[in-house]
Write a structure and sequence with these properties.
Length: 206
């Protein structure tokens, strides 16, 4: 198995899940600006969409889209705590959260990464929308250790990376006490520490 990734990007999410499951995996970095991989390949030949993450499965299938890669990893490893089996309502709760994070939070951060987006629009429109959504996540965490209760599930890996972006863009996460506590706890998790270390991000996130 191989994961194409970019330091600190959303490809950190499948890396966390790979480490959570202790799966053997090769990692190759991608320069997203020039669309070149570490080994010098044209990244468009690997993913015509030009985005990370890309997972090459042990069966040589190329799989893209974070939320789907995560499901593939958990299902292949029969990791029923990360993603409960078909028919169990808990599975659809995991998918409900994955869909929310990918379509609302992940996409919501997009303009903040775009240097051509006017700062005024970022400050007055994009950030307030993101804050409202993070406030919703904070409320969900009031009585939950993890986003869906007692156990770490796929959306927790995704939310962790969204929180690192929130901090990067100086959204004041102390506004959300439950989210702050959740982030601090997740940071100490073995798979997350390992993933941060592998991408050279331990200091940036501490
Ligand atoms: N729909 C994709 C989007 C992935 C995505 O936004 N990747 C970013 C990095 S976090 C990227 O590669 N951006 C560069 C580009 O799209 O050109 C997914 O959910 O996996």
């Amino acid at each position: 198995m191989k994961l194409y990734y970019t330091k600190g990007a959303c490809s950190l999410v499948p890396r966390i899940v790979i480490n959570e499951l202790q799966l053997p995996c090769e990692f190759e970095s991608v320069d997203l600006k020039n669309k070149r991989t570490e080994k010098g390949d044209n990244f468009y030949t690997i993913n015509p969409k030009g985005s990370v993450p890309v997972l090459i499965t042990n069966h040589h299938e190329t799989l893209t889209e974070n939320a789907v890669i995560l499901q593939y990893l958990a299902d292949s490893a029969k990791a029923e705590q990360l993603l409960p089996p078909i028919g169990n309502m808990a599975r659809y709760r995991v998918l409900e959260w994955l869909n929310f994070i990918t379509t609302e939070l992940h996409t919501g951060f997009g303009p903040l990464f775009n240097p051509n987006f006017p700062q005024e629009v970022k400050d007055n429109i994009i950030v307030p929308i993101l804050k409202r959504k993070l406030g919703f996540v904070n409320n969900q965490l009031e009585h939950n250790k993890f986003i869906l209760g007692e156990y770490f599930t796929l959306p927790d890996a995704y939310l962790f990376v969204m929180m690192t972006w929130a901090i990067h863009f100086k959204l004041n996460i102390t506004e959300w006490p439950h989210l702050s506590r959740y982030f601090s706890d997740l940071k100490e998790r073995k798979s997350i520490q390992q993933s941060l270390q592998e991408e050279g991000l331990l200091e940036a996130v501490s």
